[in-house]
Fold this protein.
Amino acid sequence: MSEKPEVEVDSDLNAAGALVVSCFPSIGFVSSIVAHYLVDKLDLELVGGVRHPKLPPVCLVQDGKPLPPMRFYSGEPICNMERCDKVVLIASEIQVLPELNLPLADTLLDWCSESGVGATILIDSYAQGIGQQHSIFDDDETEESMLGIGSTENSHKTLADLGVPLLKQGVVGGITGVMMGESRRREIDVMAILAESDGEIGGSLPDARAAARIIECLDELLPAVHLDPEPLLAEAQRIEGEIREMMAVHLNPPSDAEGAPSSMYG
């Protein structure tokens, strides 16, 4: 299918100068915990989503309200980045079909460029070893629990300011890998922050801890999200539980014949 995914957001959304935080499915729900946390703590409002015939024919339901599987939120917290005075969050709990990775990356990067956003951060996670969503072959023998990738020298500087070491070598798959490759080709300022997780969908404490580490990192950019470490961990665990409960109730699941993943997380 040649039709590209479409971003449909409120006509009055002004994303000029915004910090875009993108949270697609990751090992251990890490990106989803971060997304739900930011929506809650920054009072972000749903402003739209992404539409395409090959996205799974489902909606998420939270507090009795339907949500598109791939959605945009926006708000205006205090931001410490030079070009940022607002936040746009892109959130999804569904795995993107491989054939949609490049068209979706093109659509999102086109939207970011046309909207004049300040910078984009992709939130993701990884597990050491081969056979996981991301295989990290880093020759750095330190015990770092977060790694960064930047498409430009400016994004490398931002990662250094945040104390996130660069991934020296490795393989990053899925929408994160495609968006990073395309952003470098286009010379667009995009960075990815990946936290080490236990490598299990729905794992318990280690997943919340991985999300909490990323949230603490974002705290350097967004003072409004600040919480002390222990309450932050408890909050991440609470959100993790809510996500598990939401994903566990799957009424009228689409058949495999319709081309949808058998699981929301693939």
User: Anything to note?
Assistant: Confidence is low (pLDDT under 50) at residues 138-143, 201-206, 257-266.
